[in-house]
Amino acid sequence: MAPSDFAKANIPELVAQLTTDEAIQLCAGVGFWHTHAIPRLGVPAIKVSDGPNGIRGNHFLMGTPAKCLPASTALGSTWDPALVYQVGLKLLAPEAKLRAASVILAPTCNIQRNPLGGRSFESFSEDSYLSGLITAAYINGVQAGGIGATVKHFVGNDKENDRMAYDSIMSQRALREVYLMPFMLAEKLAKPWAYMTAYNRLNGTHMSENPEILQKILRDEWKSEAMVMSDWFGVYSVDLSIKAGLDLEMPGVNKWRSLDLVNRSIGSRKLTQRVIKERAKKVLELVQKCAIGAPDILDGDGIERTLESDEDKELMRNVAAQSIVLLKNDNGLLPLNAAKLKKVAIIGGNAKAKILSGGGSAALRSSYFVSPYQGIVDALSSNPAVEVTYSEGARAYLTSPSLDDDLFTEDGLPGWTGSWHAHENDDSMSALPDPFKTERMDETRMFISTSSPKGITKRWTLKLRGHLLPREKDTPFEFGLLSAGRAKLFIDGDLLIDNWTRQRRGDAFFGCGSEEEYGTFNLKAGVTHQILVEFVNVRGPADGDEDEPVMDSNPGVRLGGAEVRDSDELLSEAVALAKEADLVIAVVGLNADWETEGNDRTTLALPGRTDELIEKVVAANPNTVVVTESGSSILMPWVNKVQALVHSWYLGNATGSAIADVLFGNVNPGGKLSLTFPNAEEHIPSFGHFHSENGQVRYAEDLFVGYKHFHHRNIKPLFAFGHGLSYTTFDLSDLQVSKPVVSASDVELTVSLQVTNTGSIAGSEVAQVYVTLPKTSVLTHPPLQLKGFAKVRLEPGKSEVVNITLDKYAVSYWEERFSTWVVEKGEYGLRVGPSSDQLALQASFTLDRGLEWRGL
């Protein structure tokens, strides 16, 4: 029987036929990425794969080259659910099929409570409504392509430090109106096939064992049919998580749900066979959806493949460009005219760097990449007379830059040669002299995870040998080495860095890595220096932590390096180039070291001397365009001195092409900020109570998240939520509100307005509708809440009437005393405009009666 025949299986009959052991096996994964097969009953295994900005496949180490899409904050900034649907249908679902994956572990729709959160780039917005609609579009697109979506992290995972343990303490109103709302909208509008629980506690109980959320709300109240899985290693008990409604523990490595432990729990009457089979049934239902949605995956050979079509590349480039936000454009400096430029200086640490996305499980190996520098140079190629100069200006990296392009093997191929050595036995630290396996490896950041050779001993050694590309002149070069395990770096046979004998604990490789250790070596002109890194997957002792555990699931090693440069000289070089140019394009920002799963940022400031670089370059040449790259908010103390400012997020493979499209006017920017950029960290709503203190994170800002806080406290942000300029101009007028219709279970009214392109080129505008609840309410509510929006594209001089329908979600709040949604009768305010701080159109409407409701 073919695996796809499971599409026709009778699930209740299958559940009845399951032995207890088979049911237990279905409730936990196999390896890192698969569910359990039951061959006796024709139940196939299914494979899942990480998203959210692309489908990585099975391996972190030398993974299958993949499409890296714009980060979620970028997708949120399109304010275009129809476009995000196309991303899901035409890019993500086909990419999952190429990876032989039936389910993707995405999208993430947690709230950007604080931009310091390490995974803020993975979520769509600080606003629940925008996040919910973009999430639903993403899911609908993916699942229309026959691939399951897993909405995550359910719920309250809004920071990274202490993420396995901290307790998100919030009011029921905040939980319902802010943090559950994107999931609720996704369930209502898209019916995701799966949910993934968060690592953290919520009001005292870990999410993977939280029956209040998993059973009472998700299943009983929302009537969800989804399968619920844990985040990886996010299960902390046997019986509690099973009884709470967690169907699948992932991964199958070091799992709680072993046959022995679960059977012991059944024998001690902590669990029953019935509840085990209830959990197994949900897994079988997901497998059947996969068999129906993409039978070719289950019947396929399981080999991961890469395929790039011109159509795919064009869509990726368009999506990236549509997400870019034009923050400032004084004196019409943009768009640029390549034909009129004579000398362009490209400056900044991000201009040539390979920055695709934030770090962690979102990271993948890109099938191609266009840097901002290359994209700009390509755009300028139409003018053969233009001269382009470049300077890094200021170092922006946290860990030493990759050496992927600097090493080659004995055979002259890119990369280095890795020889895997088994040890004398599983407990030995002595590597055998003869290699267990030898292969060429073309990465210098190597998160090995579970990709060590099959059959090798539990402890093993990896020796990496390569040749460094020769330099044209004598060059002092600083190497950096970090590892999850122990590592040593030898240059020409001499030990340069010892990250083996004693270590300093760090955050790399999902919190298992060391701090980076450095060593400087003088590279000789024309000399091919020999590089050797020895790595063993056993962590070394450190001050305060003398344990030496085997890294059985998270081993990794990273070698980086850069030419030693004096920071003053770098700045002076950039300023000199700026003075000589008629235009400067400065590309600065963050990268996957600063914004990553596993740890939070400590500041909103740009790295190192970046701010000083911008100040000095702009002083030297006012014709400076600044392009910023980050996945969330950053500070810009120089903003009033800059004429043109473009925020590009993390844009994936097509980064440079998309940036150039906007800078040179091939694309008229239409992105709008999906989160507020504050003037100071102290202005963030959760300032002072964002960090885990004795395991508790108090959501003291309550309902006032993001722009709601800025309106409530009358604080002017750097750039407001929803802000985004265009190369044309628009007029919003003629606001009309229909008479509301209140039924026993819903409310309906229509907001209409006219949008006119008053400029000279085609462009897009987003009409944003914000609602104010009645002032007669006895409860406190945010002064303005986004409850509707519409994106419209118009030719110059053209107008379009936009109709936006509001329903009960636009006028409801959670009544904690009675555990119900409430719509009060009374007068509601309505404000409409192109951003949350420009709401010139105002109206009101009256509900002559209220209602209460539950469910969706």
From TrEMBL:
<dbReference type="InterPro" id="IPR036881">
    <property type="entry name" value="Glyco_hydro_3_C_sf"/>
</dbReference>
<comment type="similarity">
    <text>Belongs to the glycosyl hydrolase 3 family.</text>
</comment>
<dbReference type="InterPro" id="IPR001764">
    <property type="entry name" value="Glyco_hydro_3_N"/>
</dbReference>
<feature type="domain" description="PA14">
    <location>
        <begin position="411"/>
        <end position="575"/>
    </location>
</feature>
<dbReference type="InterPro" id="IPR050288">
    <property type="entry name" value="Cellulose_deg_GH3"/>
</dbReference>
<dbReference type="Pfam" id="PF14310">
    <property type="entry name" value="Fn3-like"/>
</dbReference>
<dbReference type="InterPro" id="IPR013783">
    <property type="entry name" value="Ig-like_fold"/>
</dbReference>
<protein>
    <recommendedName>
        <fullName>beta-glucosidase</fullName>
        <ecNumber>3.2.1.21</ecNumber>
    </recommendedName>
</protein>
<dbReference type="InterPro" id="IPR037524">
    <property type="entry name" value="PA14/GLEYA"/>
</dbReference>
<keyword id="KW-0378">Hydrolase</keyword>
<dbReference type="InterPro" id="IPR017853">
    <property type="entry name" value="GH"/>
</dbReference>
<dbReference type="Pfam" id="PF07691">
    <property type="entry name" value="PA14"/>
</dbReference>
<dbReference type="InterPro" id="IPR036962">
    <property type="entry name" value="Glyco_hydro_3_N_sf"/>
</dbReference>
<dbReference type="InterPro" id="IPR002772">
    <property type="entry name" value="Glyco_hydro_3_C"/>
</dbReference>
<keyword id="KW-0326">Glycosidase</keyword>
<dbReference type="GO" id="GO:0008422">
    <property type="term" value="F:beta-glucosidase activity"/>
</dbReference>
<dbReference type="InterPro" id="IPR011658">
    <property type="entry name" value="PA14_dom"/>
</dbReference>
<dbReference type="InterPro" id="IPR026891">
    <property type="entry name" value="Fn3-like"/>
</dbReference>
<dbReference type="GO" id="GO:0009251">
    <property type="term" value="P:glucan catabolic process"/>
</dbReference>
<dbReference type="Pfam" id="PF01915">
    <property type="entry name" value="Glyco_hydro_3_C"/>
</dbReference>
<dbReference type="Pfam" id="PF00933">
    <property type="entry name" value="Glyco_hydro_3"/>
</dbReference>
